[in-house]
Amino acid sequence: MTASPRTSHEPLTESDILVSARSLAEYTDMFGLDQADLRRRIIDCPGGAASAVAEISANGGDAIAVDPQYSLGAYDVRERVLADLDRSIAHSRARDLDYDWHVRGGVVGHETIRRTAAELMLADLDASPERYIAGALPSLPLAADSADLVLCSHLLFTYADRMDLADHVDAIVEMARVAPEVRIYPLVDHSGNPLPELVRSVIAKLKKERLTSRIEPVIRPFQLAATTRLVVERNTRRRE
User: Fold this and answer.
1) Disulfide-capable partner of 50 in 22, 57, 60, 187 (CB 3.0 to 4.6 Å)?
2) What CATH topology corresponds to 20-233?
């Protein structure tokens, strides 16, 4: 599947995106996080209902999440998160052959992980709302170099039918403004289709922005087709 011109599809809206609940353990698998990474200043964008920020912060780390849904307020965020949690679980069950359930402890284990992650995130949102910032790509309400690492899960490439090449490049350049390293997962669309032409085009455009890119393997993918992530880096010296 290749990137389509913007005029060939409707623009992506907030209601199109699942507000997904994923655990720090899932993030560790997806993004290849190690203990050194977890000591860095981390931004989860879009954070959705992932519990990574809550878990990192509980262990003394420095992490924030950015998502447009956080502008709704705590009550409406909870309603949206729980509704989308049920949608996400139903979607996974309907496409069970696309996933390695053993990685998540089977169907029941997977559901438990997701529900626990959602509750951890919602509790942390109530307790520490300053860690959850309302904002959306490609214009984040964050200062340049305000973090060391941005994690971007299940937005870019996932919604390639609603986001064109320029959308992807603009989003990554913005994340690279905020931190010198960006990790993006997965590199397939929401149906698990590989996107080699789009990925190559994004990397070529990023090179013109003086950003280096590499594709890394994911050791324990839950989604069987999603075996790689994109890592984008810039020189730590702030660009003019």
Assistant:
1) 22
2) Rossmann fold (3.40.50)
